[in-house]
């Protein structure tokens, strides 16, 4: 099971990078041999508490846009990133570039596993 989770996290990181670098929302160009798409990985990892690697901070700043400061308030997990990416993919499915309003705060504190203090 541990190896499976390591692989799922790696597939997620590969697809996350493809999303940000090439606007490849399903991750089909990741080239890692997995058929699991980004949306499926978001569902699988939505409750994963493993810390997300800090070297992705610049990418997360791009993902969160003007709400990036919310991201940096505390250490974040794969589950946090998965829920953010999932919200972004949902917005794109209905024709929006990105979710509106305070979507990062909403995902991380209201609809996510964590609650604001």
Give a quick rundown of the structure.
The protein has 117 residues and is mainly α.
What report would you give on this structure?
By secondary structure, this protein is mostly helical. Helices cover 56% and strands 0% of the residues. Helix 1 crosses helix 2 and helix 5 crosses helix 6. The protein is globular and about 35 Å long.
Main β sheet profile: none
Looking at the structure, what is the overall shape? globular
How do the SSEs run, as a string of H and E?
Answer: HHHHHH
* Secondary structure tally, helices: 6
Mean pLDDT: 90
How many runs of DSSP E, i.e. beta strands? 0
Indicate the radius of gyration in whole angstroms. Answer: 13 Å
Structural class: mainly alpha
Give the CA-CA distance, first to last residue: 33 Å
Helix percentage? 55-70%
Strand residues, percent = under 5%
Uncertain stretches of 5 or more adjacent residues:
none
Please describe the topology of this protein.
Layout: H1 2-22, H2 38-45, H3 57-64, H4 68-71, H5 78-93, H6 103-110
Features of the shown structure:
56% helix, 117 residues, mainly alpha, globular, 0% strand
